[in-house]
Amino acid sequence: MSHRRINLRINGMDHEVEVDPEDILLDVLRERLNYTGTKKGCDGTGECGACTVLLDGKAVYSCLILAMDAVGKEITTIEDLARGTDLHRIQKAFLECGAVQCGFCTPGMILTAKALLDENPKASEKEIKEAIRGNLCRCTGYVKIVEAIQHAGENYGK
Question: Does domain 89-153 have CATH number 1.10.150.120?
Answer without folding.
Answer: yes
